[in-house]
């Protein structure tokens, strides 16, 4: 992983994750996280982001919450983790309470609401696809990387293996493979 980001205040951490939490929608949150944390804020580089994302995806809980905790802790320890988690969860929590009240009132049956939800769903799929391609271009640098990515994809999508089990299976095999290749001097 890269060196920690320059000193960042607790307030900056809270505000950054509050904005991410307020502006990211559904499955597109990884894209917003990358755009903010790597792009505009420069608190992480791409390699570190991918490493932290792998940790987040192998742990219980939401990727966004897990990422907020890891980044907040990396920047300012436990206090940073706490404010990052509160920041990213607060907007969505408040909006969900309001949405639940609206849905209970029957608003979800309105044609415009249904159309808007379909559009937002399609947009979220596009964002996930965009982030997947961007991370893939930066992460998959060798043929072996592609093989391990494909094995994970196939085990989750075709065999319906849990993500956790797929990662637990692929990680040690990949580690042994790359260790063996490093010892032999082969970079594949």
TrEMBL record:
Keywords: Cell membrane, Membrane, Transmembrane, Transmembrane helix
Designated name of the protein: Chromate transporter
Keyword Aminoacyl-tRNA synthetase annotated: no
Organism: Methylocystis echinoides
GO CC term, one of those recorded: plasma membrane
Superkingdom of origin organism: Bacteria
UniProt record similarity statement: Belongs to the chromate ion transporter (CHR) (TC 2.A.51) family.
Alphabetical list of InterPro entries matching this protein: CHR_Transporter, Chromate_transpt
Localisation per UniProt entry: Cell membrane
Spans traversing the lipid bilayer: 12-33, 79-103, 115-133, 153-178
PANTHER family: CHROMATE TRANSPORT PROTEIN-RELATED, CHROMATE TRANSPORTER
Keyword NADP appears in the UniProt entry: no
Membrane topology: Multi-pass membrane protein
Molecular function terms from GO: chromate transmembrane transporter activity
UniProt main location, coarse: membrane
């Amino acid at each position: 992983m890269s060196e920690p980001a320059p000193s960042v205040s607790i307030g900056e951490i809270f505000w950054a994750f509050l904005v991410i939490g307020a502006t990211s929608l559904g499955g597109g949150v990884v894209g917003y996280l990358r755009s903010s944390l790597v792009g505009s804020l420069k608190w992480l580089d791409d390699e570190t982001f991918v490493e932290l994302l792998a940790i987040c995806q192998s742990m219980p809980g939401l990727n966004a919450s897990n990422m907020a905790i890891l980044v907040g802790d990396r920047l300012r320890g436990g206090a940073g983790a706490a404010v990052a988690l509160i920041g990213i969860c607060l907007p969505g929590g408040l909006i969900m309470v309001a949405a639940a009240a609206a849905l209970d009132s029957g608003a979800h049956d309105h044609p415009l609401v249904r159309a808007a939800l379909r559009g937002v769903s399609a947009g979220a799929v596009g964002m996930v696809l965009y982030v997947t391609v961007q991370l893939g271009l930066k992460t998959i640098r060798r043929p072996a990387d592609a093989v391990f990515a494909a094995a994970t994809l196939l085990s989750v999508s075709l065999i319906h293996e849990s993500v956790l089990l797929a990662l637990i299976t692929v990680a040690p095999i990949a580690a042994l493979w790359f260790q063996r290749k490093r010892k032999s001097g082969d970079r594949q």
